[in-house]
Amino acid sequence: MKAVGLLEYLPIEREDSLFDFKATKPTATGKDLLVKINAISINPVDVKVRAPKEKKEETPKVLGWDASGVVVEVGEDCELFQPGDEVFYAGAINRPGTYSEYHLVDERIVGKKPTSLSFAEAAAMPLTTITAWEALFERLAIHPENKQENNAMSILIIGGAGGVGSIAIQLAKWAGLEVIATASRSETENWVKQLGADHIINHYEPLKEQLATKQLLEVDYILCLNNTDQHWEAMGEVIKPQGKICSIVENEQPLDLNVLKSKSATFVWEFMFTKSLYTTPDIMNQHVLLNKASEMMDQNVIKTTLQEKLSPICAETLRKAHAKVESGKMIGKLVVEGFEAD
């Protein structure tokens, strides 16, 4: 089967940073599905894993996590899917990725593809949807069924125009919260406004002063999707006493937790690969939430965040896609679709 891999971790401008090769088509066993890949989405995690480092691989390493496609085989322990089912998912960080014609994935982290979306539109959604869903409804413990109660609550989403922010805004509005999103350019401001943000501020300017102009002195929740180190002190300033902060961006410097002590505020990380990496008892939650999100997409409660589409799936195209994501100026999601026929 066709695949795209790497042996060295090189700058994306290098032609050998990603290369095409032929791999052996795998076989589904246990709880694994074998999926024929139709479209994949490129995320910041793809870029981070590929980023230059000294390490070298003995055999080609295949990156890629977001995908949509069709099930062609099921393992003997599978109960959720059958061959012919159209699916979407975000994969596992510790297994071969989706830059390949066929891919093995544990059915417990796979969802039914929204019928109203194309494979490309669906491939844009899984990783960011799981991340936003877990951050809001598991880590921050927001209860979407309590919409009336949530109407009195506010959330600040730092980095609202990216892939996760684009979903988080929609989910937070669905749950009934007042949403303040950050954006730093006119095009990103327009994007978050279209997604339903109630207020827009700039994450390059002081947060507290900007919130004050919106008659908001403090917020109940913060979801940090942009530079935890840069915003740490400001988040401590604007979080309400007993409020909750969640971040998905690793820190480079030690974080002073004393900033949160007097407010008894909570800080928690979200990493959507945790369940698959450790095979946690609640790993099936990702299957359940993807199916629920799929229904919401079919009902137009959540809109696809696909903003750019490239083809075909090959090393040259993926190098272009990585460069775009690496620029840090992406709005929504970028998808690459379709392997060329032999």
From TrEMBL:
Pfam families: ADH_N, ADH_zinc_N
One MF term in the entry's GO annotations: zinc ion binding
Assigned keywords, A-Z: Metal-binding, Oxidoreductase, Zinc
Domain of life: Bacteria
Tagged with keyword Cell inner membrane: no
Coiled-coil blocks: none
Domain Enoyl reductase (ER): 17-336
Matches recorded under InterPro entries: ADH-like_C, ADH-like_N, ADH_Zn_typ-1, ER, GroES-like_sf, NAD(P)-bd_dom_sf, YIM1/Zinc_Alcohol_DH_Fams
Gene3D superfamilies named in the record: Medium-chain alcohol dehydrogenases, catalytic domain, NAD(P)-binding Rossmann-like Domain
Family to which this protein belongs: Belongs to the zinc-containing alcohol dehydrogenase family. Quinone oxidoreductase subfamily.
Protein name per UniProt: Zinc-type alcohol dehydrogenase-like protein
